[in-house]
């Protein structure tokens, strides 16, 4: 995903695998009211994110307040009720999925322990993370359209890692 003056642009591959078979019939990116989730990890957890309905946002509520007080806790409850995650050695539930979250022109990383970190100006999740971030880094500052930079990053990850494959999908939110 890339954050620029036009909002947040996100791209995703379509590869799912379970150690024995792979398919590219699904999506890893979901538009939910005024935000976009881009996910990687356990398919069950991603299915639950796709089925998630974000809570209503109060008029005048800041982005951070909404995320910390409403959206992330509601997502945690939804995932737990749906049987997502695994229990860590410390007894805590850890989500089996990492997400990028685009909202209000901002880009956040949401980790398996529900840590939320704002990322600027780009970030990636999944098995192609390092390759995609490297590609986004090397194309930064060049006169390359944002969507093309995303395509190049996804294609680099597909070419250099075994668990990334098209078709690629794209979305943008301001």
The percentage of residues in β strands lies in 25-35%
Determine the N-to-C terminus distance: 13 Å
- Average predicted confidence as pLDDT: 91
Radius of gyration: 16 Å
Topology as H/E string?
Answer: EEEEEEHHEEEEEHHE
Overall number of strands:
12
Considering DSSP H and I runs of 4 or more, what fraction of the residues is helical? 25-40%
Order of the strands making up the biggest sheet: 5-6-9-10-11
As residue ranges, the low-confidence spans are: none
**C-alpha geometry:** globular
Largest sheet: 5 strands, antiparallel
**Structural class of the helices, strands and pairings?**
alpha+beta
How many alpha or pi helices? 4
Features:
single chain; alpha+beta; 5-stranded antiparallel sheet; 3-stranded antiparallel sheet; 31% helix
Structure description:
The protein is 31% helix and 28% strand. It is an alpha+beta fold. Strands 5-6-9-10-11 form a five-stranded antiparallel β-sheet, covered by helices on one side. It has a three-stranded antiparallel β-sheet with strand order 1-2-12, with helices on one face. β3 and β4 (22-23) form a beta hairpin. The chain is globular, with a radius of gyration of 16 Å.
Question: In a few lines, what is going on in this structure?
Answer:
This protein has helices spanning 43-51, 63-81, 129-139, 146-160, and strands at 2-4, 7-12, 16-17, 22-23, 29-32, 35-41, 86-87, 93-94, 97-103, 106-110, 116-118, 169-173.
List the helices and strands and how they pair.
Layout (H helix, E strand, L loop, with lengths): L1 E3 L2 E6 L3 E2 L4 E2 L5 E4 L2 E7 L1 H9 L11 H19 L4 E2 L5 E2 L2 E7 L2 E5 L5 E3 L10 H11 L6 H15 L8 E5 L1
Antiparallel strand pairs: 1-2, 2-12, 3-4, 5-6, 6-9, 7-8, 9-10, 10-11
Helix pairs in contact: 3-4
């Amino acid at each position: 995903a890339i954050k620029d003056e036009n909002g947040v642009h996100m791209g995703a591959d379509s590869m799912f695998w379970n150690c024995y078979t792979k398919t590219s019939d699904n999506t890893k990116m979901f538009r939910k009211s005024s935000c976009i989730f881009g996910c990687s990890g356990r398919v069950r957890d991603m299915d639950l994110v796709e089925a998630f309905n974000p809570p209503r946002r109060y008029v005048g509520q800041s982005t951070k307040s909404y995320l910390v007080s409403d959206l992330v806790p509601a997502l945690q409850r939804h995932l737990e009720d749906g049987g997502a995650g695994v229990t860590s050695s410390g007894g805590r539930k850890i989500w089996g999925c990492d997400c990028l979250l685009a909202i209000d022109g901002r880009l956040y990383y949401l980790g398996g322990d529900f840590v939320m970190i704002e990322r600027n100006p780009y970030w990636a999740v999944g098995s192609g993370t390092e390759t995609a971030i490297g590609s986004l880094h090397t194309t930064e500052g060049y006169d390359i359209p944002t969507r093309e930079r995303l395509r190049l990053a996804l294609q680099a990850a597909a070419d250099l890692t075994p668990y990334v494959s098209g078709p690629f999908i794209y979305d943008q939110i301001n």
